[in-house]
Amino acid sequence: MISSIARALTESYTYPAYRKLVSDLLKEGKSTGHQQTEELTHYSALNETRMNRLDKTMKISEDSIDQLKSLQNEFVWIVISEGWCGDAAQLLPVFNKMSEASEGKIEIRIVLRDEHLDVMDQFLTNNARAIPKLIVLEKETSNVVAQWGPRPKPAFDLIVNYKKEHGVIDETIKTELQLWYLHDKGMTTQNEIMTMMLELDQELSQNEILEKVKVGLN
Predict the structure, then answer these.
(1) pTM (whole model) above 0.90
(2) Does domain 4-217 match CATH 1.10.3630.10?
């Protein structure tokens, strides 16, 4: 029986294909996802503009580029997303540029949340279907070895603290969150993910050495 993640991978999108899908739907006055509203289409249009800007201006740091190239193992990043998601619009360009900078060590595939709720429900945040969610697979085994998301810690804390104080997530905090992303320029996301990937890469490499030692002893 094929796993839900394996099935999602067969229906996943490359970054350019995802961008094209969102853009083509906007031309029809639609967004991705099962629910279609003017509000979600409006958010998708805003995100299209943001992603166009980030694709042109967002930079991966030299340290991150060197670290990505130094990875000993190969990985697949599955990103659960939707076109209307403001966090996804800010983070997908970062993920994509990190994948490109890895020179083949990391492949990125994008999965639509509403079409793969069975996958989404394996990676909830505080029992919520929060996106984007980055799921890291070891390429050789297709095992899930890590997850990250739905946003970097300072941005996550920003939302949590606002909701504690005001009891809602409204347009005020959504605007404040987008301003945080604007000023951060993707650096916190890069740093958090690189820390995760380097620790993961080291652990997998050590496990591989231990397995070889065990085989040698036998």
Answers:
(1) yes
(2) no
